[in-house]
Amino acid sequence: MAWIYLLFAGLLEVIWAYTMKLSNGFTKLGPSAITLVAMIASFGLLSVAMRSLPLGTAYTIWTGIGAVGAFVLGVTVLGEALTPMRVLAAVLIVTGLVLMKLSSS
């Protein structure tokens, strides 16, 4: 169950990163409120996952989901650049996440 909590915590991290961008420096109320709620929920689920997962594994996977998810969202929704170097960086992050998962007991 911890892995499911961690997955949702990572997805919420993507949501709060995206809505933080939309909040324009916390000057727009709706996106700002969603950012704060998603942050609290993400941290809460991460803390629940950490009850049974090692700190290094949980935190690395949480931030990795957030980083790759924000990258994908940035490219697909915000029109950010999709360059070979950025794709390689995302692939390396995903590779690291898979290795981290495989190395945890």
Features of this protein?
105 residues, EmrE-like, mainly alpha, 4 helices, transmembrane helix, cell membrane, 80% helix, Small_drug/metabolite_transptr, transport
Explain the overall architecture:
This is Guanidinium exporter. One of its GO terms (molecular function) is transmembrane transporter activity. Pfam families: Multi_Drug_Res. It is found in: Cell membrane. It is a multi-pass membrane protein. The structure is a single chain. The chain has 105 residues and is mostly helical. It has one domain. The chain is 80% helix and 0% strand. The protein contains four helices and no strands. Helix 1 (2-22) runs antiparallel to helix 2, helix 1 packs across helix 3 and helix 3 (55-76) packs antiparallel against helix 4 (84-103). The chain is flat, with a radius of gyration of 15 Å. The two termini are 14 Å apart. The model has no long low-confidence stretch (mean pLDDT 95).
Summarize this, please?
This protein is mainly alpha-helical.
Summarize the topology.
Blueprint: H1 2-22, H2 29-49, H3 55-76, H4 84-103
Helix pairs in contact: 1-2, 1-3, 3-4
Structural class: mainly alpha
Uncertain segments: none
Radius of gyration: 15 Å
Helix content: over 70%
* Number of strand elements: 0
**Number of alpha- plus pi-helical segments:** 4
> Which geometry do the CA atoms define?
flat
H/E element order: HHHH
Mean pLDDT: 95
Distance between the termini: 14 Å
Question: Roughly what fraction of the amino acids lie in strands?
Answer: under 5%
Major sheet details: none
Number of domains: 1
